[in-house]
């Protein structure tokens, strides 16, 4: 993952300079302007920043070397991710992200210090606004790209359309978590496709390809690779959410269970388990008082009914699909090696 580490540092430097330039204007609006950037800056730079790395990779595979023209787009993708995560923490009621208080929780604490009437409402409202600012900064960066107008318009149109789909998928995810209605496996996979796979992998790779002048055949190949990466990444997220450690994840384990997320793990356990275990699982899923003991019960059920093996088989199928797609890409061998390393990371990561 050396490529992604190098690009991560370059994009972080660009973000620092960009937000420093924004500071005076933000501060002139009201006292919350500077505070917003102080909260946004460490948050946007503290993650894996894979998406910006994928923008750089898509570009470099076409041009053979990186160019400063790519950094506004790479930074924009990270601002989009930041806005989505801020909103996601509110929806999922996760008070911690990456080992630090989520932004809505930080604002709630600030509300208590300021003596506002309803600190929780204040915290959620402030974080929604900050997430929106992340989106607006992203599209300002897209609009300032130093590329042909047709390319710039294609990128703006691409992200505008796809983020609408992410919003619809988030709405579906929220509904799935609140309903006891039977959910089909294909509905869950469709949710994964639009909520994670496309915007996290396909779009960044395609954005880099567009900026690098990729032809339609290469763009299509990058998009297919991104889709497989995204589904694999989401399945791994589901696994880590159930089996990972709080120390590694930076947030409590079992949040998907607490929110009764309709993951493929959920679906197959409901399909395979006996009536008694299904009934017990339903008392655990969505329980506000979820305990480590309850999480362990669910883990035991997953093993008992072979759900873990089903998920591993699906991940293996995606791995085979992705290896085939990577081998078919018309790219230099060193970039093919980078894609294989990303596949290995996606399969074996602990965060």
Beta-strand share of residues: under 5%
> What does the average pLDDT come to?
94
CATH architecture: Orthogonal Bundle
Number of strands: 2
Instruction: Count up the helices.
Output: 16
Mind telling me the C-alpha Rg? 21 Å
Explain what you see.
The chain is mainly alpha-helical and 351 residues long. It has one domain: Orthogonal Bundle (Farnesyl Diphosphate Synthase). Helices cover 79% and strands 1% of the residues. It is built from 16 helices and 2 strands. It has a two-stranded antiparallel ribbon with strand order 1-2. The chain is globular and about 60 Å long. The mean pLDDT is 94.
Short description:
The protein has 351 residues and is mostly helical. The protein is 79% helix and 1% strand. It has one domain (2-348): Orthogonal Bundle (Farnesyl Diphosphate Synthase).
Which terms summarize this structure?
351 residues, mainly alpha, Farnesyl Diphosphate Synthase, two-stranded antiparallel ribbon, 1% strand
Topology:
Elements (H helix, E strand, L loop, with lengths): L1 H28 L1 H15 L4 H14 L7 H22 L3 E2 L2 E2 L1 H12 L4 H25 L5 H30 L6 H27 L4 H28 L2 H4 L5 H4 L5 H9 L2 H10 L7 H13 L2 H22 L4 H16 L3
Antiparallel strand pairs: 1-2
């Amino acid at each position: 993952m050396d490529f992604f580490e190098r690009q991560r540092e370059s994009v972080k430097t660009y973000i620092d300079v960009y937000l420093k330039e924004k500071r005076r204007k933000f501060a002139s609006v009201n006292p919350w302007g500077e505070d917003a950037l102080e909260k946004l800056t460490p948050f946007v730079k503290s993650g894996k920043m894979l998406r910006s790395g994928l923008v750089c990779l898509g570009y470099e595979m076409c041009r053979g070397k990186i160019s400063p023209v790519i950094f506004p787009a790479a930074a924009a993708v990270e601002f989009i991710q930041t806005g989505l995560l801020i909103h996601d923490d509110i929806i999922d009621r996760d008070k911690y992200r990456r080992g630090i208080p989520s932004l809505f929780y930080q604002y709630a604490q600030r509300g208590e210090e300021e003596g506002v009437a309803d600190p929780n409402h204040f915290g959620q409202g402030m974080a929604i606004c900050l997430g929106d600012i992340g989106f607006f900064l992203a599209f300002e960066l897209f609009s300032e790209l130093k590329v042909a107008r047709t390319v710039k318009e294609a990128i703006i149109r691409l992200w505008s359309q796809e983020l609408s789909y992410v919003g619809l998928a988030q709405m579906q995810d929220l509904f799935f978590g609140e309903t006891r209605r039977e959910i089909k496996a294909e509905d869950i996979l469709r949710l994964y496709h639009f909520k994670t796979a496309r915007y996290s992998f396909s779009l960044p790779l395609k954005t880099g390809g567009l900026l690098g002048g990729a032809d339609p055949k290469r763009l299509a190949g990058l998009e297919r690779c991104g889709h497989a990466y995204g589904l694999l990444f989401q399945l791994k997220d589901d696994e880590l959410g159930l089996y990972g450690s709080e120390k590694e994840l930076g947030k409590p384990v079992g949040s998907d269970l607490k929110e009764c997320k309709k993951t493929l793990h959920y679906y197959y356990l409901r399909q395979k388990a006996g009536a008694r275990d299904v009934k017990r699982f339903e008392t655990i899923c969505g329980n506000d008082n979820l305990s480590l003991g309850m999480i362990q019960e669910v883990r035991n059920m997953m093993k008992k009914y072979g759900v873990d093996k089903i998920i591993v088989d699906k991940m293996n199928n995606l791995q085979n699909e992705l290896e085939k797609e990577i081998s078919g890409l018309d790219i230099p061998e060193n970039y093919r090696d980078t894609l294989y390393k990303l596949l290995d990371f996606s399969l074996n990561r602990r965060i």
